[in-house]
Every structure is written in C-alpha cells, then in structure tokens.
Write a structure and sequence with these properties.
Number of helices: 19
Shape: elongated
Strand content: 15-25%
Radius of gyration: 29 Å
Largest sheet: 8 strands, antiparallel
Number of strands: 21
Structural class: alpha+beta
Length: 622
C-alpha cells in the first residue's frame, strides 16, 4: 500500500469513527447517559470557556454533583485535559460534540498506527482500526462525554511515538511521546501508567534504539514529560492545596484503590473486599468478547495473530490484556459496574477499555492470515463476526433509549411548567447526582439564566430562597409510581406557625397515629374520624403557646402518618411531609419552606420520594 493510499485510508477511518461517535450521541445520549459523570465533564468545559477552573464557594448549591467545596472554591473531581478538548470543540464549532468526533477519530487512527508500527502491515493495521471503531464498547464510549476513550487515545499516542521514536532514534518523536504521556497522566494518572508503562519498558529493553543509549532515550522522553508533569503539580497545588493532592480526592478519601469502604462520597459507600475485586475483574473480562467487533471469533483470531506474529514490539501490546485487568483488580469501579448498577450491561467493560487494543490488533492479523490462505473460510468468519456483533447491540441500545425516555419525561414536565425567573430545587442532585434523572438541567457558571437548578439541602434552602428573592421557588419531586411534579414553594414565617394536615388512613389499617418529628424528638397524637390534625411549631426565642413544639435554630421537621395492618408486627408503613425550617431575627421568628416534600416507607422498604398519591396532605397556610 502506497503512502498516499495509506494516508487516504486513515482519513476515511477517522471520518467514519468520528461520524459514528456523533451519531451515537444524537441517537442514545442527547440528554447525557446513565453514568452522570459525562455531565460533569461538560460542566467543567463550560467553566474553562470562562477562563476559570473552579467556582466560588457560594456556587455550592448549583455545583455539578462530582465536586466539593475546598476552602473558598468549588473544585470539580476531574482534571482539565478532556474538558479542555470539549471546550475547544464548542468554541470552534458551536457544539461540544466536536470533541466526541475528534476523540473517536484519534483513537481509531492511533490503533491503526500502533498496529502498523508493531506488525509492519498497513492492511492489517487498517483492519485493526476498523475493528476498534466498530466494537460496541468503543461506539458507546465514543458517544458519551466520559473520559475513557480520550484517555486511551492519549496512551496510544504516547505508545506510537515511543515505539517509532526509539526505532528511528527521533528526538522530536521521543520528546512528543513524553509530552503526550504527561498529558495522559494529568488526565487519568492510573490509566496512563497501565497503558504507557508496557511500551516504555519495551523500548528500554529493546536491543535496537535508533542508535540512542538508554539514558539518552530517557532524557528525551523526560524533556517532554517533565514540563507537563510540573504543570500538573502546580494545578494540584493551586486548586486542591498541595502538589500531590489529586482533585479526584475532593469528594472524600474513600474513592480510591484498596479494599474497605469505597464510594464517591462518604455517605454512600460499600464494603469492597479482595474477593469482590477478583469478582469484578473476572466479570469484566468475561463480558469483553460480547463488546468487541466479532465477539469470541475475534478473540480466537487474536490468539492466532499473536502466535503467528513476530517482533518484540508485539509484547507490550499483548501485555495490555494482562496488565490493565490486574491493575484494576484493587479498584472498586469494575466491581461496582458489574454488581451495583447496570454499568457493565449498558456501557461495557470501560475501565479495562485498553484490553480491546490487543484483541483488534492481533485479531486483524489473524483474520488477514486466514484470508491470505483461503478466502472462503475468511468470508465465513467475517459473516460470523458481523452476526455476533449485531446480536450484541440491541440490548445496550434499548437500555440507553429507556434511560433517555426517562430523562425526556422529566424534561417535558419541567418545560410544561413554564418556569421563568425561577429557582428549582432538585432533591436528587448534590452528592446524590449519580441517581438523578436531571443531569441535563445545567447551570451556567455565571448563574445568568431563566431557571437556576439547585440541590436541595434542607434548612440551607431557605437562605437560598432569601438570596434569590426575586426568583420564584419551586421543587421537582419525583417517585417510582408516577410522573415527576413541579411544585411551587412558599416561605411561611412567624413567631409560631400552625400546620394543618388531612391524613387519609388506608381502609385496612388496624392502627393509625399522626406524628411530628423534629431532630431526635417525636410527638404523636391520635386521629379523629375526620383524619385532620394540627401541630403548632414555634421559634426558640418566641413566647410559644402551651403544647407548641419549639424547634431548633435550623433543620428539617417531618409531619406524617404511621399505620399498621392486622397481624403486622413490623415497623408498619409511614408517609410524611418534610419541611425545611430555620429561625431569623435572633431566634424570634420561624421560617418554614412549604409544602413539605412527600416521602414514603412501605412494605418494609426504605424511605423513597412520594411525589404522587401521598395520603398526607397539607391544608391551608400556617
């Protein structure tokens, strides 16, 4: 294959991979994906477009979910390299999707370049690039704003430059290899280590290094890497407070490698054991054939291609299939996507995405070897590969479309509410953003937009309503039984306030009690036939009526209904309304944010939002 045809073929591969990424995003992820991290990367891109990397601390109620307040700034969990690409694409083309096309195109072309460098066969290399781009796990990742594919592209870029630079004794390539590896480490340090280290070790151990000594090679790579790594340390020091403190840790020390309590935030962790690590690794490896183009046929061809290939450069490529899964064994993420949520089912083994590279590189070599010996057998294999790939696609596609349908339903409710100059509280945002159905409701860094989307934070919501007094407050309430509801909110204030409730007792209940819970205190009263009850609550500094419940300075009170069915010796069922409260005027006046949010605990389960059909109804104003 001539150089001109090679370059033209690479250009076609880039266009196809880039177009597939954009089309996948439009078809499956127009409002982001079930992995809400993608919205955080876009949020950081928008922040970078303003010339900043962090937000003032008073943006805390409006921050993206994977972030935290550090000192006087809101720091996002992730680092700037990939968001910077998204921002650049948005500024240059008017759409952040340009970054998706660039990432997918670069990754596919770099797989082809790596295969050409290792196997010295451009036809095999182009086949490897095509197999990579058409692998379902790559197609899905390319359509999201998640960082795994661009991180792999950086690692592949460093690998190609290292191998070719060492072979040719090229100083520019080796310096560029160091710079790209440095950016990869800035973006995702552990991924960079696992992906680049096998190639770095291979060039150090190689007998031929283009006439360069080992120290000379190291110095050239370091010349490119050290400035980028120095920039990384400066960024860490400025943003997080220390050069060796990673932004990834701002949400808590439990999101890390090792065994024990693991999770993004301390309040939502799971006990991750060594056995879980092995389980997660094996589950991801077992799922991999179903997520690559050609399925198990490609895996078999990859074994053939590796056995029949020659040259020491093939070993670092093959090593990715071992190093990456073992490296991720003590990290809770692969286990979580296999056991805790539908990550592996819908997104594929994205933590171990580099494993796809040796499969497609050596799989292409095996396929072309078969084709050159007998085209009929190769044609049968290709048909089988196409069939296996086609069978793998419908499940994830249906799953992602279902998620998008849920997002669109919420989006429609918000649009139908016709909000303008409003403040909309989102109960499942903030630190619970990973379960939110509203990742697409985003705040501009300037907060200059018709509707501001704020995480519900209890008593602090009243201060936010006062801060944005010119905006009408609302709450988006969701549950599992019906559509979400946009509720208008109001602030009731006074030295003491009366709460009137109408409680609909289920007809099969054997007992029913009304209650008010404030902090660690609970008050109860019996129900009369009308089902109406009232409670009087008072500020701590007010002259309260006898029987009034004096509240703390700030918190969330609950008024509700507890019932038992005949023969039920368990906790029974409960429904309640939760209201944020605080005191003002030195404790003399009380403020309540009403109506309260409806919650339910039934059938022995935990508390869940109850936006529709709650038997606890507020009556009138306090």
């Amino acid at each position: 294959m001539t150089t001109a045809r090679w370059r033209a073929a690479l250009a076609v591969l880039a266009v196809v991979a880039g177009a597939l990424a954009v089309l996948t995003n439009l078809a499956l992820f127009p409002l982001y994906s079930l992995n809400r991290d993608d919205s955080v990367y876009v949020a950081m891109a928008g922040l970078l477009e303003t010339g900043a990397a962090t937000l003032p601390a008073d943006h805390d109620p409006f921050r993206p979910w994977a972030s935290a307040v550090v000192g006087d700034r809101v720091v996002l969990k992730y680092t700037p390299p990939w968001p910077a690409v998204i921002a650049a694409g948005d500024l240059l083309t008017g759409s952040p999707r340009a970054a998706l096309a660039l990432s997918a195109a670069a990754a596919a072309v770099l797989v082809a370049l790596l295969a050409a460098e290792v196997l010295r066969d451009r036809t095999v290399a182009l086949t490897a690039g095509a197999l990579f781009a058409l692998s379902p796990v790559v197609a899905v990742q390319s359509g999201t704003f998640l960082p795994y594919l661009p991180a792999l592209a950086l690692g592949l870029g460093a690998a190609v430059l290292l191998l070719s630079g060492a072979r040719l004794g090229s100083t520019p390539r080796l310096v560029a290899a160091g710079a790209v590896a440095g950016v990869a480490a800035f973006a995702r340090p552990f991924d960079a280590l696992l992906t680049v280290a096998p190639f770095g070790l291979a060039v150090l151990l190689a007998r031929e290094r283009g006439g360069l000594s080992r120290p000379g090679l190291v110095l050239r790579v370091a010349a490119g890497a050290v400035p980028v790594l120095a920039l990384t340390l400066v960024y860490n020091a400025v943003v997080v407070g220390g050069p060796f403190s990673l932004p990834f840790t701002v949400t808590g020390p439990q999101d890390t490698f090792g065994f024990g309590d693991r999770g993004v935030f301390p309040q939502r962790t799971a006990d991750f054991t060594a056995a879980d690590g092995v389980t997660g690794m094996l589950a991801n490896l077992a799922a991999t054939p179903g997520w690559v183009a050609g399925g198990v046929v490609l895996v078999a061809l990859a074994v053939l291609g590796l056995v029949r290939s020659r040259g020491a450069a093939r070993w670092p490529v093959a090593a990715l299939a071992v190093v990456v899964p073992l490296g991720y064994l003590p990290f809770w993420g692969p286990w979580a996507i296999a056991e805790q949520w539908e990550g592996l089912e819908l997104f594929g083994p994205f933590y171990t995405l580099p494993v796809v590279v040796p499969l497609v590189v050596f799989g292409a070599a095996g396929l072309l070897r078969v084709a050159r010996r007998g085209r009929p057998l190769a044609a049968i294999l290709v048909v089988a590969m196409v069939g296996l790939t086609a069978l793998a696609v419908p499940g994830p596609v249906a799953g992602h479309r279902a998620v998008t349908a849920e997002y669109r339903a919420v989006q429609q409710v918000v649009e139908d509410a016709g909000l303008d100059d409003a403040l909309l509280f989102l109960p499942l945002r903030g630190d619970l953003g990973f379960v939110s159905d509203t990742p697409f409701l985003e705040n501009a860094p300037s907060l200059q937009q018709p509707v501001l989307y704020a995480a519900q934070r209890g008593a602090a919501d009243l201060a936010l309503v006062a801060r944005f007094a010119e905006r009408a407050p609302y709450r988006l309430s969701e549950d599992d039984e019906g559509p979400p509801v946009v509720e208008p909110l109001r602030v009731d204030a006074g030295a003491q306030l009366t709460l009137r409730l109408r409680l609909a007792v289920p007809p099969d209940a054997s007992s029913a009690v009304a209650y008010l819970r404030a902090g660690d205190r609970t008050y109860e009263q019996s129900l009369d036939p009308s089902g109406e009850v009232s409670w009087t609550v008072a500020a701590p500094g007010a002259a309260a009526d006898p029987g009034a419940v004096v509240l703390d300075d700030a918190g969330v009170l609950a008024v509700g209904l507890a019932v038992r069915s005949p023969g039920d010796d368990g906790p029974g069922d409960r429904w309640e309304r939760r209201m944020a409260h605080r005191t003002v005027d030195d404790g003399a006046r009380l403020e309540l944010l009403r109506p309260g949010q409806a919650w339910a605990r039934t059938d022995g389960g935990g508390w869940v939002p109850d936006a529709t059909g709650s038997p606890v109804e507020e009556v009138g104003r306090g």
